[in-house]
Amino acid sequence: MLHSSGQTSLREALELRRLEPGSYTIETPPSLCFATVTIGGLVTSIIHKAAADFLSKPAMTNTHRDVLCVYTQFFRPTLPSPKQATLKFRVANSSKASTALHLEVIQNDKLCLAGYITMTNLAAPGRISMQTGWQLTPSPLPVSLKGLEGDAPSIWSGYLTPFDPSTYRKPHSYVRFYVPIERRSQYYIDQWVTPGWKDDCSPNGAVWTNETIHFIIDNSLPILNDLLDTDKKFDTYNKIVKAGLLQRQARSEGKDDRLWGEGLTDSELLFPWIISTVSTSTEVKRLLPNEGCKWLFMRNTVKNITDSRMDLEIVLMSEKMELVALSQHICQVIHVDRKRAKKASL
């Protein structure tokens, strides 16, 4: 699939290209890259969709079409179109309750990522479900999603990164992030997320679907910046809040709201640290509606940073605050100078 310099819809980016049973071609659009590297969550979303497709073939006798959990380990980045990668599945174990698939993504004869994806039938009868009274602590601030949609004054500020094919943070332009104007902790970030791209070919417009869960949880606002910014030199969170308020003001005045905001362009946001995901483990707790949905809540919490490795927990919930997915990410925290020195020595 060839891509123009424009913003490819997420639905189009997830279209499958089958090679042979158990094998798929992955060709990702440049518009979903951080710099020149495909965001890992997009690749995992493609894996999610392809696994369901693989098990739907006549040769498969089970009814396991729903993703229960995904574990991935990243070895090297996946490069975008015109480069192609190959996704390969192998049945590792199959039982009445679930099917486990081993997966590999290979590009230029090198292993980019490997892992396992467990499939099941989440609608199967006889399974136990009950409410335990668990809830996020502290509780998220109150919100009116209709108010956010209508740009009503709120204690939440919505920011959409303007799409520009020449910039570094292109995947952020696919999500409009709403964050509390007053942040309560630097160790976690609460976000209401709604699609930020246009999809004129879909009857419901751009929506979140089950396979896009992985893209969402890998595409949060940069939580690390303020955590390591001890002298408040960058103050990224407050800049995002202010820029979101300016975007809302522009819309209310009938003006173009594609505003970066002070200190948020690539040339200004020169934060010296980069997060590189090493592995992810995601368990899906609830299916999204078949027609998709417009709103999801996400809390990202830094649990620990030791020896430049960060443990990040992501909780994803529906607009009714029902648990949708839990994800654990292990990330390497890399200083930009170190990354440049490594490239220079190659």
Q: What would you say this structure looks like, in words?
A:
It contains 7 helices and 15 strands. With 346 residues, it is of the alpha+beta class. The longest helix has 17 residues, at 236-252. Strand 13 and strand 14 form a beta hairpin. The strands form 2 sheets. Strands 1-2-6-7-8-5-12-15-14-13-11-10-9 form a 13-stranded antiparallel beta sheet. The model is unreliable at 1-5 (pLDDT under 50).
Short descriptors:
two-stranded antiparallel ribbon, disordered N terminus, 13-stranded antiparallel β-sheet, 346 residues, 33% strand
Sequence-ordered SSE layout with sheet pairings:
Layout: H1 10-13, E1 17-20, E2 23-26, E3 33-34, E4 37-38, H2 40-55, E5 66-74, E6 85-94, E7 99-107, E8 110-120, H3 145-149, E9 156-160, E10 175-180, E11 188-195, H4 213-217, H5 224-228, H6 236-252, E12 273-284, E13 296-306, E14 309-317, E15 323-335, H7 336-345
Antiparallel strand pairs: 1-2, 2-6, 3-4, 5-8, 5-12, 6-7, 7-8, 9-10, 10-11, 11-13, 12-15, 13-14, 14-15
Roughly how many Å apart are the termini? Answer: 32 Å
- Which of globular, elongated, flat, extended, rod-shaped describes the shape? globular
User: What is the share of helical residues?
Assistant: 10-25%
Query: Which strand order does the major sheet show?
Result: 1-2-6-7-8-5-12-15-14-13-11-10-9
> What is the CA-based Rg, rounded?
20 Å
Concise overview:
This protein has seven helices and 15 strands. By secondary structure, it is α+β, with helices and mostly antiparallel strands. The strands form two sheets. The protein has a 13-stranded antiparallel β-sheet with strand order 1-2-6-7-8-5-12-15-14-13-11-10-9.
